[in-house]
Write a structure and sequence with these properties.
It is a single chain. The radius of gyration is 19 Å and the shape is globular. By secondary structure, the protein is an alpha/beta fold. The protein has 17 helices and eight strands. An eight-stranded parallel sheet has the order 1-2-3-4-5-6-7-8. Helices cover 54% and strands 13% of the residues. Helix 10 links the parallel strand 5 and strand 6.
Length: 353
């Protein structure tokens, strides 16, 4: 019996995960062999050692190595198949994964062929594994509006195929503004496509306000909103979901440890917090470990962790009746699993922190 086994057995959703940052070392070795790309290691354990986070520059190096090994449609299918298998093993039944299509197009991939290949693989994963994977193509602030045009076009084409649920915005929020992409977000809204933006991670409240002005419906990270009480109050009142990635934040220097991380303050304020893994292969984590870490280090009871897990379904880009059904499924499973994994019944809803 353990908290981790309880959390692993629950049906869950993950809303902030990057497909490229979820490629396991074993999969990367296969991809590199196909592409005849030399990696810093030639066996899985050595590559795992190389993956281990050191600093931001090394993180970028690993991320770009993963991206360089993706070129042909079958490469992306292999990456997506690996992700689907991992999601199934973790009990994740719905995942919305960020995907930087413009980077791959710049590396020579054919966007239309990738759309066909990924749609096929995702449909098979849903049919054979019971795991629903949807994509959020990211505009990267750093590279300008040309690649953003391509990203928007691909996102809209993917929306028509049922593969894409939102347009995203990523890249350096501290060095590059969000405002140049207002037209892209407006176009997405006109077509009924959801909008997500990384903000409030390496820049403060001003970054969050900028993406809210663009019409972002969910915030990737958003944790530095606590630095401005009025902004935090607005996020709570509007229940704008925050995709919090604890281990990622700690490794990238947003906070020195979980005790001083804004997560506790966000939960206490009543913010719409979800827990996620960001780049799980690079940060050596996953959703179950993130939830377990939050429970153990912040001394949250299982009841509160169940509510945090339920928030993943509640704020997914799904029709409201389906979200409600999934939340109810999670709560039912939690009640049934608690005696087996925790040795006790669950109490009522958690009290405010």
């Amino acid at each position: 019996m353990s908290l981790a086994s309880f959390l692993a057995a629950l049906p869950k959703a993950e809303l902030h995960l990057h497909l490229e940052g979820a490629i396991a070392p074993a999969t990367l070795l296969r991809l590199a062999a196909r592409r005849r790309i030399a990696l810093p290691a030639t066996d899985e354990q050595s590559l795992r050692d190389w993956f281990r986070f050191r600093d931001f520059e090394h993180f970028v190096e690993v991320y770009l190595a993963c991206s360089r090994c993706l070129r042909d449609p079958e490469d992306f299918q292999l990456a997506a198949e690996g992700l689907l298998a991992t999601l199934e093993s973790l009990g994740i039944v719905h995942c919305e994964a960020h995907f930087t299509i413009a980077t791959h197009a710049a590396n020579g991939a054919n966007p239309g062929e990738l759309l066909d290949a990924l749609a096929e693989t995702v449909a098979a994963g849903e049919r054979e594994r019971g795991v629903r994977l949807r994509l959020i193509p990211d505009i990267v602030r750093n590279v300008g509006t040309g690649p953003a045009d391509l990203t928007l076009d691909w996102a809209l084409a993917g929306q028509r195929r049922g593969l894409v649920v939102a347009l995203g915005l990523s890249g350096s929020e501290a060095r590059f503004p969000s405002e140049p992409f207002a037209d892209h977000f407006a176009a997405a809204a006109r077509h009924g496509l959801h909008r997500v933006a990384h903000a409030g991670e390496h820049a403060g409240p001003e970054s969050v306000r900028a993406v809210l002005a663009l019409g972002a419906e969910r915030l990737g990270h958003g944790v530095r909103s606590v630095e401005e009480p009025a902004l935090l109050a607005e996020l709570v009142a509007r229940q704008v979901p925050l995709e919090v990635c604890p281990t990622s934040n700690l490794l990238l220097g947003v906070a020195p440890d979980l005790a001083s991380h804004p997560l506790r303050a966000l939960v206490a304020a009543g913010a719409a917090v979800t827990i996620n893994s960001d780049d799980p292969a690079i940060f050596d984590t996953d959703l179950v470990r993130e939830l377990t870490r939050v429970g153990e280090e912040l001394e949250y009871p299982a009841e509160r962790l169940v509510e945090l897990a339920a928030a993943g379904f509640a704020h997914a880009f799904l029709p409201a009746p389906e979200r409600a059904t999934l939340v109810a499924r999670l709560h039912r499973a939690a009640r049934e699993l608690a005696p087996v994994h925790l040795g006790r019944e669950l109490a009522g809803p958690p009290q405010p922190a």
